[in-house]
Amino acid sequence: MTQIKIDARLLSELAREHRLPISTADAGYRMHVGLTSVFGDAAPKPFWIRDTDGQHADVLGYADQDKKSLQGAAQMHASSLAYEMCEWNRLHCKPMPGADVLEDQALSFKLRACPIVRKGSAGQGTNLDGETVKWRAGERMDAFLSQALSSGDDITRSEAYASWLRRQFDVRDGGAEIQSVSLEAFNLKEVTRRAQGTTMKQQTKPMVLLSGRLQVREPEDFLSILFSGLGQHKSFGCGMMLIRPA
Fold first, then answer.
1. Which DSSP state fits 130?
2. Which sequence ranges form a coiled-coil region, renumbered to this chain (predicted)?
3. All domains of the chain in start order, with CATH
4. Which of 27, 157, 192, 216 counts the highest number of beta carbons within 10 A?
């Protein structure tokens, strides 16, 4: 795990260099541009913007390189502005536990995620207002809306997102059993993504903070899922799961 302190003023300057609209580009997109400008392919992903005071942003991320290697990658890849954006005396790295340590471990977790699902086929359902909603095959949808429309049963966001999280492990060969999930926060967030060339597209996405407890079953599979992230927009500040002994 890597912890990086980012100068917010220089990040905004870098965003302008990349022609990002500062007034509308979301923090996750700006940080994605910032980290890749510094580290290139070695940029931590997924990452979590943990704190910002207006002058600095504190970023956690999973990277497969140590502190010396990350700084070396930046020295090779980054522009002067991008390199100066990182406070190198406040870069910290620690090794994550290996498969032998995690075997049968009970862990508590926190996860910031974008719980989106892709519809496998076209269909229609009735929303909470009794209106008919149609969708196309391959369309992306909030996991809560998808489950509510498909089942026709009353379901809470907490239940829907807990089911979504369990499926993230089930469809990727398990690795862990989710034992409990709580929905700590939810909001619909406007996010910015580059569509074509310099064109920017605004989208509304569900963002959640989940916490709970899990039991590691297959440590190597669990670590693969942990380091690759969960859900959508893993390059933009979503999908990082923080763990500690339960």
1. S
2. none
3. 2-93 (no CATH), 99-245 (3.30.70.1210)
4. 216
